[in-house]
Amino acid sequence: MTSMFRAELLKLRRRRVAIAVAVSALAFAAIAAAAVFLSATDAGGLEREATIESLGQAGGATEAFSIGASFAGILVLVLFIANVGGELSQGTFRTLLMRQPRRVGLLAGKMTALLAFAAVVLALAEILTVAASTAIAPSQGVSTASWFGADGLGAAAGDYATAVLGIAAWASLGMALAVFVRSIPIALGIGIVWSGPFEHLLQDAWTAANQWFPGLLLEALAAGGTAEVSSTRALALVALYVTAAVSAAAIVFARRDITA
Amino acid sequence: MTTATASGGDRMTAPAAPARPPAVSLRGLSKRYGARAAVESLTIDVPAGVVAGFVGPNGAGKTTTMAMLLGLVTPTAGTGTVLGGPLGDPASYVGRLGALIEGPAFYPGLTGAQNLAVLATAGGHDPARIPGLLELVGLGARADDRFRGYSFGMKQRLGIAAALLGDPKLLILDEPINGLDPAGVHEMRGLIGRLAGGERTVLVSSHVLAELEQVCDWLIVIDGGRLVFQGPAAELLDGAGANLVVAPEHPDDLDRLRGLVAAAGHDSRTSDDHLEVAVKGDDARGLAAALNRAAGTGGIVLAELRLARTSLEDRYLTMMNGADR
Of B57, B220, B264, B309, whose CB is crowded by the most CB atoms within 10 A? Predict the structure, then answer.
């Protein structure tokens, strides 16, 4: 597992990747901060819409990051399906297994490296979003006085942990789907349709959907809990789904013939 | 087990058993996909230190067998060892072998050198070997080019460099010549020749025996997932024998010439204006001299007297057509 972790990091520690990550994080920070601060009103409106007052509180510095990260779930799902599915369909897993035949270790090493990399990217995105928020806040009449105290740092750490957990969950579900299906287009179709329209349509027809469906639970987790689902329940059920999906994927990957 | 075997009871005796244990030893190996048998009760040995050609038509089960050796595909039945490690535990031997199977698969956005670095790290091999390996396969000047820009031949050669990362005792190459242009074929044959020898065993597959004829000293022939022949390549050729072609200057003398051949104790086949006499081994030179002498004594002028050796490919095709079964 350790050798595969280091091997995967080699692929990520390249100038092109670094530039792409820096540009993406910068764009994320600018767009998230602009969208949140420019749309903030005195009263608020939508469920996660920030108000001038809430942005001026201790967690205001990372509010834009937190809201922005909650929308990144589907993107992460897509990226991990494409990454793992690509390894399976293009034969690079086969090439790797001829050097490192312990399959579960290979999959675990790769996922750990990708998640570690994602955690670094999230940290960068959070720092840049705080910088962008600090730049925009005065123009919107938002006070930053409470942002950089102990409470502010605590809120930032909490938002970061929530984002990392959410991303790790989406990534694990994407990986598992790619392993089960082995086809990028089919896995993408299933993943996007399920977590997008399917869950949300059912949410309208069946109120309990919020408490059970993984995509909706992940949304509740990113929001720090909702009126229908507490963050504790969301975290527990997401952990259960992720554990089941990762375990099943590991078993399937370990036993299935590698023919591509 | 060193008995060269052709199916259908045509058994040939191979030289004395090698002192070292075989690099690959399979017993009754089978792989079924539903009702279809990709490999059926395959029992083979690859002696250590040889260049073994693994030959059979497309769909014969070569790639599936190699995939089972590498732990990529789980056998339905059978046992075996690879470099002394049990087939069911590829982790015990994969680090000592290198393989290129089902074509080269690498990360298109990484350079050749970066791809090898990823594999070396994953396998725990010394990355310091990478520049030398790239030179060995003729990619030294293109090491920093992206894989997606490589020609097919270059991709194949990078695949061989990857297989050599761990300085393997056993090298498994699946159709490395397939799809290469004539110059590439020549180059690849030379490379395989250079990689062989010493402690290293090479198992190389092809559906065209002629591609391997020049580099292999051991042959395994399979068809329909079953073993057709295994043994020294020379033995397959010896089994093929040769034809003595005898042509009189005047076609009218053909019947008298046939009589001389019969008198020498051989059957002949008339083909156009000449006779073909099946001969084996050392018989050929003696028979040619005897026929030449008898024809001269009988007043027959020979326009042609030559030995036409059956090629390995002819022998292989005969086997594939079922003549030896």
Answer: B220
A163 inside domain: yes
DSSP annotation of A51 reads: B
Residue in A11, A106, A260 nearest the CB of B118: A11
Q: What angle do CA A220, A223, A226 make, to 5 degrees?
A: 55
Predicted confidence at residue B239, as pLDDT, reads: 62
Q: Which domain holds residue B146?
A: 4-238
* Shortest Cα–Cα distance, A99 to chain B (Å): 5
Q: Any idea which residue has 């922005």 for tokens? A: A68
How many domains is chain B partitioned into structurally? 2
Q: Do B148 and B209 belong together in one domain? A: yes
Is B67's CB within 8 Å of A90's CB?
Answer: no
* Residue A97 to residue B72, Cβ atoms within 8 A: yes
Rg of chain A (C-alpha set): 20
- Structural domain including A179 reads 2-255
Separation of CA B172 from chain center = 12
DSSP A197: I
| Same domain for B97 and B215 | yes
Whether A13 and chain B come into contact, CB under 8 Å, resolves to: no
Query: Considering only alpha carbons, which residue of chain B is nearest residue A258?
Result: B72
Give the B-side interface with A, CB within 8 Å: 67, 70-74, 90-91, 94, 98-99, 101-107, 109-110, 114, 117-125, 162-163, 165-166
Residue by residue, DSSP assigns A217-255 as: HHHHHHTT--SSS-HHHHHHHHHHHHHHHHHHHHHHHHH
Interchain contact, B101 vs A101, CB within 8 Å: no
Say how far residue B222 (Cα) sits from the centre of its chain. Answer: 11
* B31 backbone dihedrals φ, ψ, rounded to 5°: -140, 120
* Chain A CA closest to residue B32: A257
Same domain for B190 and B202?
A: yes
DSSP state of B111: B
Q: How far is the CA of A116 from the CAs of A73, A109, A164, in angstroms?
A: 16, 10, 10
Over the stretch A72-122, which tens digit does the pLDDT of each residue have? 888 999 999 999 999 999 999 999 999 999 999 999 999 999 999 999 999
CB contact under 8 A, A98 and B99: yes
Mean pLDDT of chain B: 85
DSSP string for B182-232: HHHHHHHHHHHHHH-BTTBEEEEEES-HHHHTTT-SEEEEEETTEEEEEEE
Residue B324, in any domain of the structure: no
Nearest-CB residue to A99 (from B103, B105, B119)? B119
In a domain, B295, yes or no: yes
Q: Per mean pLDDT, which range of B80-84, B191-195, B198-202, B312-316 is the poorest?
A: B312-316
In a domain, A68, yes or no: yes
Residue B103 and residue B47 share a domain: yes
Q: Tokens standing for B147?
A: 């894989």
Output the CA–CA distances (angstroms, integers) from residue B41 to A6, A123, A248, B44, B89, in the order listed: 40, 57, 32, 10, 20
Question: pLDDT per residue over B293-310, tens digit each?
Answer: 999 998 999 999 988 776
The CATH number of the domain where B170 resides is what?
3.40.50.300
| Whether A257 and B73 lie within 8 Å, measured CB to CB | yes
- Are residues B137 and B17 part of one domain? yes
In a domain, B323, yes or no: no
